[in-house]
Design brief:
The structure is a single chain. This protein has 208 residues and is α/β, with parallel strands linked by helices. It contains five helices and seven strands; from the N terminus they run βαβαβαβαβββα. A seven-stranded mixed β-sheet has the order 3-2-1-4-5-6-7. β5 and β6 form a beta hairpin. α3 packs across α4. The longest helix has 17 residues.
Amino acid sequence: DFTVRDGAGNLVLGPLRTLVATGVSAAADGIEHEPMPSGGKRRTMTLLSLASRQIWPQVLGFLHLDPRPETLILLHTSEELESGGPARRLRSLFSEAGLLPAASVHLAPIPHDDFQGIQECLANLAAHSGLHSANCQLHFTGGNKLMALAASEWCRRERVRSFYVERGRRLLQLAPRDDGIGFHDAGNLDPHLARSIEPLALLRCQLG
C-alpha cells in the first residue's frame, strides 16, 4: 500500500506497520538498529536534511561530511516558497554540480506543525530505507523550531548523530550518549568546500 517514490521523484511512505513487507525490522517505538558490518567494509551513508530556502547551509552541511554521503534525502514541507521549491532546486543543484547522481537525491514530505507527525515521518522513512545510527545523519538547520525539537528527540531515541549550521557557518554537532545528547562546537565551516560549484548556480538555487 505504498511505493518508493512517485513520478515527481518524491518518496511515498506508508504507515510503519506496512513496512514489514520490505524486510526491514522495526521496533514498536522506532527502528531496530542493525549491527555494523564485519570485515572492514564501509557502510553506505545517507544524509537526511530539512530543506529550506537558505541554500548555503544545506550545501556546506553536505560537503563538510567525510566520507561524503552516497544518498541525500531532502525533507520538505508543503510550504512551496519556504521548503518545497528550495528542495527541488537543491536536488537539481546537487545533480548538475556533480555532487551526487540524480538518482541518489530524493525528496520526502514532512509536516512542519505536528511534533508527533514529524517523528513518525522520520521513523517511517528510516524503516523503509533501512536507516539507523550506523548509516545516517540528520541535518536540521532548515527546519523551524518545532521541527528541530522533534527531529532532535527522534535522533536521541534512535541514537542518530545530527548537526546544525548556525549563523556565520558555525557547525554544531550533536551525538547521543547514555546520559542524553553530547554537544560539540566544531567551529566555522570553510566556504571553500564549495569552490567546485559555479557561483551563478548557487545564486540561481537561492533565488529560484
